[in-house]
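Lab manual, section 2.4: Encoding a predicted structure.

Procedure: take the sequence of the chain (218 residues), apply the prediction step described in section 2.3, and record the output as structure tokens. A sample record is shown.
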Amino acid sequence: MRRWSFTLGAVVLSLAAATAQESLKSGPQPGTLLPAPFDALNINGKVAEGRQHCLICQNALHPAVLVFAKEPSEKTEKPLTDLMANLDNLMQKHQRDALGGFVVFLSPDSRSSVTIGERDATSTEDLLEEATKRNELVARLKKRTETLKHVVAAAYPLAGPKGYNINPKADVTVIFFSRLKVKDNWAFAEDKLTEKDVSAIVEKVDKTLEEARKNRED
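Recorded output:
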């Protein structure tokens, strides 16, 4: 009886965990429009490397995959790296579709009291500390994204852009949109993004773009 009770309890916990993961929502949901453009500190890219720049504006009405991600730990490093690499390859494949790809790293070290209008309330020492942390963050992200040829990486404060409703429990939020309308959304808690998930995201974006092109050509 005890063994059956233990087994049943384990099943219940597993189902509860799966349900919690499935119910995790982060960012604008399918069928809605992106809340607003936003400026982020661009880490790479030919257009605005090293500057605050709006990637949404740069992309205009073209399709794009927008990823919000916390800096990964050693445990979550590989899935995020794989996601970025696969997105980079997907952009290469869909150049004629003008597919955009952006990875915005959310970090407290990205904070700038100058850009968010709090300069008068911040001391010189605080501004210096902010700048130091921001420079260290940029160095880390440059190294992390140095192999990317098409994906643009950027940095933004931890909470994410206003109106985007990035869930604090989400380590990675993936938003696929076109003409500023969200087509798909995936959200993953810490250590929940898997190789299978990366493949599913890439396959869905690829298939959607292929079908859209076929419809245009028919």
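Check your result against the sample. The beta strands are 39-42, 52-54, 64-70, 100-106, 152-156, 170-178, 181-189.
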